Amino acid sequence: MKFSRRTFLQCSALTAISLLTERRFPPSTAFASSGTASGNYYLAHRKELTDDFASTLEGVRQFLSPELGNARVQDITQKALGRFENLLPNLPDVGGDRNPDTEFIPIAAWYVALHEPMLAAGKTPEDIGKLIYDLNLYSLRSYPPAQARAVQEKLFSPAGLAGLRNWTTWTQKRELGANWVAYFVEKDGQDFDYGINYTECGLVKYCKSQGVPELAPYICLNDFPKSRTLGTGLRRSKTIANGDGFCKKKKKKDRPVIQDWSTEIAGIRERH
Q: Which pTM does this prediction carry?
């Protein structure tokens, strides 16, 4: 299968690194205010963010056309792109370019934008989640191992861990209501190299604000293939999106990742 894309992995970030690019860890003072010099982060990056989604929709067309036909899939993707463009100016402020997790909010808007046209075509929130998850897996097949190792090394470096500590400390100030709130967990010397406990999730807040909280668990599932590719050894025992009230994530360098869609989907179905 061939398609032109800067797919799901190429424009989103999680607690320590961008999914396909090295994440920046600014000093704690960089978290002092939100937005960009021009005011609205999302409008300042409108073209880039819209192009990212348009490229992903090309993948959607390739995946869905054999089942639904070209005309129907064209209608889905056109409506989704229009919906995303309407959502973009009002996406919640979580710190703009001063918060690396800002990049997750437009990703959540992808799911929201696809929701109505996919449901109109007889699909479910689970179908949307599986579609983007599979596009994620497809993209990861071509991720350069040397680049993955470089990202891994930076993440587990003293500077990388210090950046995470700074970020979690900033979130605890709760300066922005739409933001995550996270706590850094120091390594235990054996089971994990570091952990992050979340008591509030920006993705869950956004999905709830759009009336589609059922989409949030599927966004979170993409943590696992990313971690497998980068060798960060993610284990997650609780998830806010699944109704647990908090998230518990622990990472250990080069540990096998044993969770994925197949291990988690039954629990999501049961709760949603």
A: 0.87
Using one digit for the tens of pLDDT, what is the confidence trace for 121-172? 999 999 999 999 999 999 999 999 999 999 999 999 999 999 999 999 999 9
Structure tokens at 142: 């071509």
Q: How many CB atoms lie within 10 A of CB 104?
A: 23
Instruction: Note the pLDDT tens digit of each residue in 67-103.
Output: 999 999 999 999 999 999 999 999 999 999 889 899 8
- In the beta sheet, which residues pair with residue 194? 186, 251
- Specify whether the CB–CB gap between 254 and 231 falls below 8 A: yes
* Pure H helices in the chain: 41-44, 46-68, 70-87, 104-120, 125-140, 145-155, 158-171, 202-209, 216-220, 223-230, 261-271
Minimum mean pLDDT among 25-29, 38-42, 158-162: which range? 25-29
Close Cβ partners of 135 (under 8 Å, ≥ 6 residues apart): 5, 7, 8, 56, 59, 60, 63
d(CA 18, CA 103): 9
